[in-house]
Specification:
11% of the residues lie in helices and 48% in strands. The protein is mostly beta strands and 147 residues long. A five-stranded mixed β-sheet has the order 4-10-9-6-7, with no helix packed on it. It has a three-stranded antiparallel β-sheet with strand order 1-5-8, with no helix packed on it. It has a two-stranded antiparallel sheet with strand order 2-3. The longest helix has 16 residues, at 2-17. The protein starts with a helix and ends in a 19-residue tail after the last strand.
Length: 147
């Protein structure tokens, strides 16, 4: 009996190693590998585009229509903030959506397929980059002399 329980726990652990993933990145390769992926981003005051990349770990995505839900952390809870529908080509094992973050905060992003099954979830923190204020150029008056 103990061996069966141990075997089940080991299988459950390996199952998590091959789970679907969400990445936040600047770009991605043609094969769906994220480039410069991280979970803390600085955006411009007017917003910045960040790829939300869903990787189904080499398995074909079950449904052609999938949804990205973005919830924002407010007052101790994640509350609905935005959602996007994504059409996926047959046979695809990953997709990327170039999402424009316009506000700072902590966000939970999750993927739901058209069968209402949650495929993956991840959090990201968005911060507004501080603008460097350019100092006004100071010009010295040049005196022209006539000789």
């Amino acid at each position: 009996m103990i061996k069966k329980i141990l075997f089940i726990l080991i299988l459950a652990g390996f199952g998590n190693l091959f789970a679907q993933s969400i990445y936040f990145s600047n770009s991605h390769t043609e094969t769906g590998e994220p480039i410069d992926a991280k979970n803390i981003w600085g955006i411009k005051p007017w917003g910045s585009l960040i790829y939300i990349l869903f990787d189904n770990e080499g398995k074909e995505i079950e449904t052609s229509l999938n949804y990205i839900f973005v919830d924002r952390y407010v007052d101790g809870n994640y509350k609905p903030f935005d959602s996007k529908a994504v059409n996926v080509k047959p046979g695809a094992t990953w997709f990327a959506y170039n999402y424009k973050f316009t506000e700072p905060g902590k966000f939970r992003v999750y993927i739901i397929n058209q069968n209402q099954k949650e495929l993956a979830s991840e959090t990201v923190t968005i911060q507004v980059e501080k603008q460097l204020h350019k100092q006004p150029a100071r010009y010295k008056l040049a005196l022209l002399r006539r000789s």
